[in-house]
Amino acid sequence: MSTPKIDEIGFWSEVKLEIVRDYASAYSKILSKQKSISRYLYIDAFAGAGFHVSKRSGEFVSGSPLNALNIEPRFSEYHFIDLNPARVAGLQELSDGSNDVVVHHGDCNCVLLEEIFPKCQYSDFARALCLLDPYALSVDWQVLQTAGRMKSVEIFYNFMMMDANMNVFWRSPERVSTEQRARMTAVWGDESWRDAAYKKEQKSLLDEGGFFEEKASNQRIAQAFKDRLRNVAGFRYVPDPIPMCNSSGAVVYYLFFASPNATGHDIVEQIFKKHAGRAANG
Ligand SMILES: C[S@@+](CC[C@H](N)C(=O)[O-])C[C@H]1O[C@@H](n2cnc3c(N)ncnc32)[C@H](O)[C@@H]1O
Prior knowledge:
With 282 residues, this protein is α/β, with parallel strands linked by helices. 40% of the residues lie in helices and 24% in strands. It contains 10 helices and 12 strands. The relative contact order is 0.14.
């Protein structure tokens, strides 16, 4: 088995890791005290290699699975998923044979729906915190909608705005390939992304029938996605997402949190507030 490739990460990824770690730590403290809960899971759907190298400092940075394993009190179960076999082997090493850790090799869109979410049913008094941290637009809407309807799962989710802007939200939408449009539809859940991403403007006051489509701002698109998480997926609490920016100030992704409970929402709002300035200066 080859050694897993270690990613070099931008500062915004370091901020994301801190946000998720801070919330996972608070979550575990709260859930561990709830006598009615039978188990609570940590799910890392795009788990990665376990370590990164910071672009800024050149130093090793613990990845999200390692951060989760170091949280006290421990979660009842950890589920790490990755598509890359070398990373899966690395994650298995990281788990050091602990019987509360399961490493899954495969596409998380299938593994979550078929193997892991069934273990987190509200009616079984189970709960879960799930991190969806892809490189690109690759989380199917069905995963978000299933999590939202379960009422037992909280998510952190990166909506990959840079990928969307580079490949789908073009100024001339008619030039976007069918394949890229289908990719956005899979992520958004239907074709209503077109209404969110483009504003219809009249060409001129004299040209009554003539409209052109102008690309909407990133912020407006993110708000539309937030509305979908609440109104279509059914998450009761979705704070405003935090834009994670690169060193040129461009939004790489919006980090969303969505939850069925008010306490989680309030804690994450505080955490987002604490980190907002740092996330804008990647
Ligand atoms: C951004 S990295 C994850 C970083 C990690 N969450 C962290 O913060 O330490 C994305 C990972 O997702 C994996 N991946 C890509 N597509 C996947 C899929 N469909 N299902 C599961 N893993 C996938 C890649 O191999 C890569 O290791």
